[in-house]
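Q: Protein A?
A:
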Amino acid sequence: MNAELLDSTYHGNPFERDKFRFVASMDTLKQDHLLSSLENAEIDFVVVDKAHKLSKGTDRYKLSEVLSRRTKFLYFLTATPHRGDNEDYIARMRLLDPYVTDVESARYLIIHLKDDVIDLDGKEVFPPRESRTINVPITEEERRIHEILDEFIAKKLEQARLSGDRREINSARFLGIILRKRASSSLHALNVSLENRVKRLSWDESIDVEEPIKRLKEAEEEFDEAEKEKRE
């Protein structure tokens, strides 16, 4: 979408026209002045490409909530509807159906899986695939490290809940997510993260963690490893 078209100073609110059709990036529409224009729009049909980028807690998700309220039909396109986080997945599915309660109840919303794609002659486009679960045993030392990590995260969460500070609770939860991700990557990655944490234990606890958390989620969506490391 051309940004000039959205300049209400010269063209008025484009979403108030009887007929309009736009192709726009999420990051264009998530701007506050456009969100406010969309709040009163009456839209027939919205198609969101790369819908997995609508992660809960981001500005893109805020945009999707507005679009969900203002459109009659909402259609998501994505190759990765579920990215390993049930809570994030359910939040996204509730944009399509607010009565979804769990992964199982959201199954009917997903149509046209890769295995079902056919060409005009009715032939399968993608070759059949076989998935297997391979169990990789861990050593006793590795198991103990994971136990210690779980104990540490549980202790931090309990301390945060006792404080009653919402920012501290969010910070503790996100710390747990980061450390578990690093541990699942490799014990070396976990070690680096823990060393960095030790170096920064004197950080100002009054710092608002909401913005860094939001930016980290967006960096993950864009597969921006440099930004992701920075935010972690």
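Q: Protein B?
A:
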Amino acid sequence: MTTPIRIAVLGCGTITKGEHLPAILRNPHVELVALVDASEERAAALIRSTGLKCRVRTDYRSIWDDVNAVVNALPNHLHASVTLEAIEAGVHVLCEKPLAIRSEDARTCAAAADRKGVILAVGMNRRFQDNHQLLRAVLDEGSLGAVSGYDWQMGGPFDWNSASGFYFSKAQAGGGVLLDYGVHLLDSLVDWFGPVADLHSEDDDWGSGIESNVRLTLEHSGAYGTIRGQVRLSRTYALANRLLVHGSDAQAELRLESPQSVLLHRELGSQAVIETLAIARSAGVSGSSFDRQLSNFVRSIQRLEKPLADGSQAAYVLEVIERCYAGRTRLPEPWSEIGAATGVQA
């Protein structure tokens, strides 16, 4: 038996309560030392509601000497600075996405982790979903034939129960739906199809810096050749909430509500069929993507694995997002034009 890794969670918002904390409590290789939040009452309430016996801190700097690792689930604008402080203190970090608001800061964190010899993992939990791994296998097996492109739509009215409301501040969030949710999709697309060689971006930011709707056209250059695809994101209305990857022989579909499977659309004889692909698991073997993410982080600290999503990879995705923001154009909204609405000529 190895000594448990002493861990603290920074930030006691929804993602901590719903995902990080349950994963920590289910992992036998970690010991929860403290919950840290600017609101002492919020942290204490979370401890009371879960029956925990750990410390409450309002100053994250007070815990460096007591822990081996932290989960950084603070608002976006604090990710890079606090992660860097933890690294400099010799503490391993699992940082929620995005690692930073700016790619330059993410690169600084990645370089510091390499220099200090500590683990920096980034919370791209979708990498640990079965359907992410299954699509990789489908692509590698050539089950789709020649891959020609993809269409990924993700969206619905914003309903995240944010404790701080930082999502709607450009200074604190860094951006809107593209930086918040799109970072997951771009991370997966780059992992599957390779670097983004070219892109075109449209969004509905009217100057606040917090876009709610985005449409991207991307071109990748990777192991499967040149792949072109479209991404649509929304915080205001429901989209199809699925990825379709088009091939010459079949299509692969990933649905938001079914992270454990991939649907394969193809012809069987003269009939169109749908096959459901799922990973066969032993009875009793389970675990959410956050459980697997934490396990990968712990095993990386133990030098048994490497982080599936590290600082350098996260920095590259942020660079792609910065390219989108720098070259973005206005998403067509004909209903918002006065002339279109009233018939008045400009």
